[in-house]
Amino acid sequence: MAAKSRTRKKKSSPARKTRAKKTTKKTTKKKPAGKKTSPKRKGGKKKTGSRKKTSGRKSAKKRATKKASRKKTGRKKTSRTGGKKSARGKKRARIASARRKRPSSGQRKDKKPTRPLKIVRTVKDMRRYLSDVGAKRRKVALVPTMGYLHEGHLSLVREARRLASVVVVSVFVNPAQFGPAEDLDRYPRDLSGDRRKLRREGASVLFAPDTAEIYPEGFQTYVEVTEVTRDYCGASRPGHFRGVTTVVSKLFNIVKPDVAIFGQKDFQQLVAIRRLVKDLDMQVEIVGMPTFREEDGLAMSSRNAYLSPSQRQQATAIFRGLRKAKRLLDSGERDSAELAAIVLDLLREEQDMRIEYVAVCDPQSLERVPEVESEAVLLVAVRIGDTRLIDNIQLNVRRKRARRK
Amino acid sequence: MAAKSRTRKKKSSPARKTRAKKTTKKTTKKKPAGKKTSPKRKGGKKKTGSRKKTSGRKSAKKRATKKASRKKTGRKKTSRTGGKKSARGKKRARIASARRKRPSSGQRKDKKPTRPLKIVRTVKDMRRYLSDVGAKRRKVALVPTMGYLHEGHLSLVREARRLASVVVVSVFVNPAQFGPAEDLDRYPRDLSGDRRKLRREGASVLFAPDTAEIYPEGFQTYVEVTEVTRDYCGASRPGHFRGVTTVVSKLFNIVKPDVAIFGQKDFQQLVAIRRLVKDLDMQVEIVGMPTFREEDGLAMSSRNAYLSPSQRQQATAIFRGLRKAKRLLDSGERDSAELAAIVLDLLREEQDMRIEYVAVCDPQSLERVPEVESEAVLLVAVRIGDTRLIDNIQLNVRRKRARRK
After folding, report:
1. A213 — phi, psi (to 5°)?
2. A219: which chain B residues are within 8 Å (Cβ-Cβ)?
């Protein structure tokens, strides 16, 4: 499998082609890595040093194992981002790595996967794999996804690699979290593309069960977080979060990860999962990663592929609105209604935009707050045509620097 | 703690006194162990040999550790059932052990616990304990109970000891499984008695968290098995099974047992828990143990303590009915309505008896069956005064011995 994929390296994936066509300002097509074209990452924390940490985590034993494996396969020692970079200065390499994007097909030429990616389709095989790799003694990270992976997902995989030695990425379009009138059937899928991307990112295993494997006949058990899922997406998508927390519970029980990585874009989902883990005493650390954005600020989402060029343009109003609200907060405004209003005003300018909710709320309980005291989150959901998009921004009040008087 | 309890050995527990008063035919009061007075156990499988297996499981290493610990505490080597028995013949000891009941206070004099019983009140301490005893490498059994332990519970503990080396018994009166008008407040409790009994049975740890430990402020996550919990007790006790499956999920996540032992008396609960484990991919084996009965056949239950002497007498009609139905089945009757009718007739003779349901159903799906084909279960729930009692019997069609023609 691995050899086969190496021969295909020069071909760009169908998924990438499709998305490049549909999104006007695609950032990943044959442009050199640099500040201007790198996708924005909100908050941008932990930008530097990630590579250093990764290599720092390698024990002497692991290095020895790697050396042995190189000897076997006859591969040369190369850095993860290609042999070219070994000549560069240390600082420069670090920065480049932090801003790492999917290289264009030309650049990818020299890239070798660091380890084979295992594809697993059943619960039984997943358990056998974990037992075989000695998962009880190694740290395991899980990145649950619905596939059609974009840079946002891959940033989660990178964080997973940083945090654990076994990285499981699940790809499962979960019917239980789609309503009867929702986009389950047309939800974009590209398993071979996902496989290629995950191999490149050095994930250990891709867990891609089919529906009957996860929901066999007679299935009837659901896990429900009741309060934090009531409003917002919970109100407009009845049953959605029950589907999410049920499948996540199952994945946690199957994979038994030490850590699971989710994106902050699905903020309410992240809050629900934190609550689930706490309430049911699951021993898994939940890591929420900053939203990955296109150059114009639109939060990356598999559903962006649905947008027409005009809708894609209108969609940028969401993050423009969020940023404007944040600036208003920073200028001293604390009133939630005012902060929401500035977002609403911007959204209403777009002709295809139907606003579902704009809410300022507590980041733990998700209860609406009348004003921002220390921290809050501004949640937005809209529909553009048939496409539902969500986004959010943290509204944290900056501490006054009054200490050094 | 252990020393203190040993000085109390001669005192009978307050719980036992209460129950002896309330139940007319108490079998455990100063009667020698024998066939006539031993509580009936439906099925009665695996009666003999349990002691032998227990000792057989001891590794040389364990024996050495034990020896060292005896040296430390200065205790003499005694068998689990007391030093006296060491003089008896092997067979006799085995039989006595199989029929083992709680001995009277006089007999208990020489009995020493084989290992100290650890009392744990918090989730954190539970996890620390399991980590300390190396639970990852040892087999762990969990017996979830609501306390006020009777012989039925203790038979589960014995099975747990047979199956695993670490035996956790949880005692938690779970508010989530009681309706607002139910008997949560008056549910009988006797933690010190439970502790004593568990020490005697050789349980490893008693996990007795308080309500706030299991349901801290903000708790809002529930696990629900939807179909098998709809009828029967689910219909008359809305929310009951949601409470059960939620707390059991939590206990499974806290204790991470390899095996969990439940009584078959709560048949619908057992079916729901099997479904829960299967549906959510929990890796725990569920063992259902035969119902433990009083001499007159009444299924042991903590709630039997509520019954007046007259009610206690009327309660015997339940098992008499079940047995009669089984005999009718064995005589060739397959019609579910007929089998139920014979139970209903008997129950209706009792003046304080209000019948909640009598149903013949499939033992996996719990759907009612019009006739018994190969296996079924007859479920009964009644109220006697304010006390709700349930019981059941398996209606399995005997295979015809037509093979040896």
Report:
1. -75, -35
2. 279
What's CA A336's distance to the chain center, in Å? 28
Cα nearest neighbour of B278 on chain A: A219
Among residues B321, B325, B327, B349, which one has the least CA distance to residue B339?
B325
Among candidates A160, A233, A224, which has minimal Cα distance to A392?
A: A233
Q: Could you list the beta-strand ranges (E) of A88-176.
A: 118-120, 140-145, 166-171
Asked if A282 and A273 touch (Cβ cutoff 8 Å), the reply is no
Structure confidence at residue B399 (pLDDT): 74
Position B395 pLDDT exceeds 50: yes
pLDDT in tens, A111-148: 444 568 999 999 999 999 999 998 889 999 999 999 99
Among B70, B65, B46, smallest CA distance to B161 is for: B46
Candidates B222, B253, B276; nearest CB to A224: B222
How crowded is residue A351: how many other Cβ atoms within 10 Å of its Cβ?
9
Closest CA–CA distance from residue B224 to any residue of chain A (Å):
5
The pTM score is 0.76
ipTM: 0.75
Q: What is the largest CA-CA distance in chain B?
A: 68
Cβ–Cβ under 8 Å, residues B277 and B230: no
Q: Are A246 and A221 in contact (CB under 8 A)?
A: yes
A279 membership: H or E segment, kind and range: helix A267-279
Backbone dihedral angles phi then psi of residue B54, each to the nearest 5 degrees: -60, -50
In which element (H, E) is residue A151 found? helix A151-163
* Nearest residue of chain A to residue B217 (CA atoms): A279
Residue linked to tokens 């000549």: A87
- The residue to which tokens 């143990």 are assigned: B289
Q: Which residues pair with A369 in a beta bridge?
A: none
DSSP state of B46: T
- What is the rounded distance in angstroms from the CA atom of residue B244 to the CA atom of residue B176? 7
pLDDT given at position A303: 95
A contacts of B282 (beta carbons < 8 Å)? 253
DSSP code, position B265? T
The domains located in chain A, with CATH, are 113-289 (3.40.50.620), 307-396 (3.30.1300.10)
Q: Which of B229, B252, B281 to mutate to test the interface with A (most CBs of A within 10 A)?
A: B281
Closest CA to A260 of A142, A83, A361: A142
pLDDT digits (tens, 9 = 90+) for A8-62: 333 344 433 333 333 333 333 333 433 333 444 444 333 333 333 333 344 444 4
Which residues of A are designated catalytic? 153
**A271 Cα to chain B: minimum distance (Å):** 12
In 3D space, the residue among B279, B278, B301 whose CA is nearest the CA of residue B291 turns out to be B301
Q: Per-residue DSSP letters for A67-78?
A: HHHHHHHTPPP-
> Residue B399 — φ and ψ, nearest 5°?
-70, 140
What pLDDT digit, counting tens, does each position of B230-240 carry? 999 999 999 99
- Contact yes or no for B216/B209 (Cβ under 8 A): no
H/E element, A361: strand A353-361
Residue where the block lists tokens 């959901």 = A381
How many Å apart are CA A207 and CA A195, to the nearest integer?
A: 10
Query: Other C-beta atoms within 10 Å of A190: how many?
Result: 21
Rounded Cα distance, B324 and A139, in Å: 58
Please, what is the angle between helix A151-163 and helix A191-201, to 10°? 40
Chain A residues touching residue B224 (CB < 8 angstroms):
221-224
- B245–A280 CB contact, under 8 Å: no
Buried b / exposed e over A276-295, threshold 16 CB at 10 Å, is bbbbbbbebebbbbbbbbbe
CA–CA gap between residue B44 and residue B184 (Å, rounded): 32
Q: What does the alpha-carbon distance between residue B213 and residue B123 come to, in Å, rounded to a whole number?
A: 7
